[in-house]
Amino acid sequence: MVQKMVITQNYNRNEKKHHFLLDGLIVCYECKHKIGVRARKNGRLDMICNNYRRNSKLGLCTSHGFNYELLEKMVLEYIKKLFLQINSKKIELNIKNSISKHDYGKILKKIETEIKLINDNIDKMYVDKLNGKISEEMYERLFNKLKGEIKQKEEEYIGLKNEQENNSYDDVDSIKKLVKDFLKFEKPTPEIIKVFINRIEVHQDRQVDIIFNFKIINQLLKNLE
Ligand SMILES: [Zn+2]
Questions:
Q1: Which residue of 140, 160, 210, 225 has the fewest C-beta atoms within 10 A of its own C-beta?
Q2: Residue 64 Cα, ligand 1 centroid: separation in angstroms?
Q3: How many alpha carbons fall within 13 Å on the CB side of residue 175?
Q4: What is the Å distance from ligand 1's center to 45 Cα?
Q5: What's the mean pLDDT in 159-177?
Q6: 200 CA from centroid of ligand 1 (Å)
């Protein structure tokens, strides 16, 4: 109980000190360290690469000392514009490269059947070899070919199964619903932002890359470029 109270108090104190919407999400593109936000005496919020700040004498990175408020404004405007387009179907989320939640079972079943078919063929070939219908050499060659096919399909199967179990697939309907909910907010909370954004990479030349948590949105942005 006491432990809990102490943690809560510390947390609240921290909250007052760093209440930035994008806090923890901003990453230095050049060195991949986090970029921190600091309040200047004049109240201006500036970003600085933590790696540069800690090791400025070593010259491991550059300052990336840009204005945070400008970044936050730009990022929010960008997301809002993108989401409005998705919501009004001006931009269609393309499911082609992604599998919807409901299709996993079907695809896994199909691969299972294919593997069974290949195994049946191997059994048949073995009988053919015993009966002298095909030569030992031919059998060997076909056997290796089919075994290779099975291995490939098994790898595909395991990969898909992992995706399914870890919920790492994109469900277009859920994303559309999240987008719709996001647009209802006057100003989004850090929690909502973290649902969508994986990280924001800031380049020294002020280019900004937003990396979303959803593969399908990242692909969409690549296609829009
Ligand atoms: Zn850096």
A1: 225
A2: 7
A3: 24
A4: 18
A5: 80
A6: 13
Residue 216 is predicted with a pLDDT of: 83
Assign 3-state DSSP to the chain and report helix, strand, coil percentages, each to 5.
60, 10, 30
Question: Amino acid identity, residue 32?
Answer: K
> Hey, what are 185's tokens?
């907010």
pLDDT for position 225: 73
Distance from residue 74's CA to the centre of ligand 1 (Å): 21
d(C-alpha 81, C-alpha 75), whole Å: 10
Distances (CA, A) of 103 to 12, 26, 94, 159, 220: 44, 35, 15, 14, 21
pLDDT, tens digit, 9 for 90 and up, residues 82-100? 999 999 988 888 665 556 6
Nearest alpha-carbon partner for 198 in 224, 180, 176, 221 = 221
